[in-house]
Structures are given as structure tokens and as C-alpha cells.
Amino acid sequence: MADKFAVGVDFGGTKISAGVVNVNTGQLVSVGKKKTRQVSEQEDVLKRIIAVIDEALLASEIDVRKVSSIGIGAAGQVNRQKGILIDAANIGVQDLALTEPIAAHYQIPTYLGNDVEVATLGEKNFGAGRDCSSFVCVFVGTGIGSGIVHNGELYLGSSGTAGEIGHMTLFPDGRPCGCGAFGCLETYASRTALAKCIVSDLQRGIDSIVRDKVDMTKGILRAKAIASAVEAGDELVIQNVVSCARYFGMGIASVMNFYNPQRFIIGGGLVDAVDLYLEVATKEANRRALRTPAKKLDMVKAELGDYAGIIGAALLSRSGAPALNMV
Ligand SMILES: [Zn+2]
User: Which of 73, 92, 204, 304 is the most buried (most CB within 10 A)?
Assistant: First the structure.
């Protein structure tokens, strides 16, 4: 099979990265990166994306004429048909037309999807879902999002928003969530939720070895710091990881009962770094779910890690998503 190359762009809240990907093998040939920055000028965003794509193309030493498509995975709500990023709270843009100007600039068909969707595509083709036809990918980060693959196809739902597992209600009068509701799963089980719980315990004076590793005002604590605290037997951190992971397992149990997939693929920096999280979540899901689906529970880590977004975005042309014509 002749090599076929595509560019994948991961447009996230903190950085834009792009790579040239061999779409037959999933091999990442080269990478370019830039910080996203909160920008108000839409043109500025496009310039930055083009600069990152150029950097990846240059480093790949592959003739741009050999690139068959460009795919962009953006953190936010997208209109796939029109190629517009509708709303991205973390990036600070609204109604940003992405595919048309990029396609016109490179004269290459360009596709748009959201970040969770493209990471799921990556796992489906070259990661933990390659031998599986019905699975749910769940990504634990700032929030909790999921992608659904049903009978070998990505299932997006009637308005393209399926998989919002993070906004499943756990407690009707619980913590306020960014979506406007209360007690959503992600306010109890995400990396952000875990960091907040740890900070609040530290503020109450409980001792921990992460005390000097946490940004107390912003509530930021890196997954690696959490992992080494767990390894060192730090009680405060272990207790909080266990409680967040239990909540996560409760959410998974509901999806197991409702959808009964062959497999759950769990990703995100926290899950990658802290084995305890997935261990506790698996136990809890097993304990809570109905007996029959629980018997077949297959819960594994995502395999593509940091580059899932780039590799998955490069595969958007295969997902049946519409490409915008080059202008
Ligand atoms: Zn919510």
C-alpha cells in the first residue's frame, strides 16, 4: 500500500499542535507546537494554526502535494458541516470559521471534529479499540468527555453531542457545574475536581507531600505529582484519588447498564499516571453494575497518549465527516 499522509491539528485550551501522520500505519512523522493564548482576534488564531501546520510540514520533509487531507480536532462545540468552532470556553473564541480558510490556504480538503471525537477515532484505528467494534472512550481531564463507537462507526447523536458522560447527575443538589446544572459527574471525578479536593484539604491544615507542588490559588496540581504522592503512600492524596475514582466508577456503571459496550477505553493524563484511579474505578463499576454486563467488563487504558488528538484528527477524512470544498 502506498503511503498516504494527512495533517492532524490538535487545537486545545492551552496549546495548538499539529503533525504529519501516515494514515495507513498511524505513525506520526513530525510535530509542531504553539501556545494557544487567549485571543480575541479570530485572524490571529488562524495565523497560529497555519504556522503550526507549516512547522510540522517542514519538519516532516514530505512534499505538501502528498498530503491528502487536513483534520482539526478542537476543544469545544463544532459544526462539522460548516467547519465552524461554535463555542470554546477554554480558548475564548466563538463562531470561528476554521476549515474554509485553512482549505483555501493549502488547497487541501479540511475537516473539523471535536477533541474527544478525534481521540476516539485515533483509539479506534490505532489504539486500544482497533480490535473492537462497540466501545466507549472516556477521557478524564479538566472535564470528563466520551466518544462512542457503535458497530464500527462513531456515534455522534442526533445533534452531534452524544457522549456527554461528564454531565450525568450524581447528586441532584451537588456541586455547581460549568454547564449550569448541579452535581454532575465531572465536578466529582475529573482531574480538576481531584485537585480542588486536595487543595481544600490542604487549606484545612491536613498535611501532605504535595503541599509545595500545588498552585493554591488556581488549584492546579500535575498528574505526575499526584502519582508520586500515591506511590509514597501520602494519605491525603490517596484518599482523594480513591473517592474521585469511586464516583467515576459509578458513572461507568450507569453506562455499562445502559449501553453494554464490549469495552471501555479510559484516557487522560491522570489515568495514565495514576494506576490507582483506574483500579478503584473498575472495582466500583463492577460492584455497582447489573450482574450480566459486569461479568464482561473490559476496562483498559487508552494507548495513544499525548498524540491521540493529532493522530485522530488526521483520520477525520475517513470518518465520513463532510469536507469543506476548497475555495
Ligand atoms: Zn454539568
Answer: 73
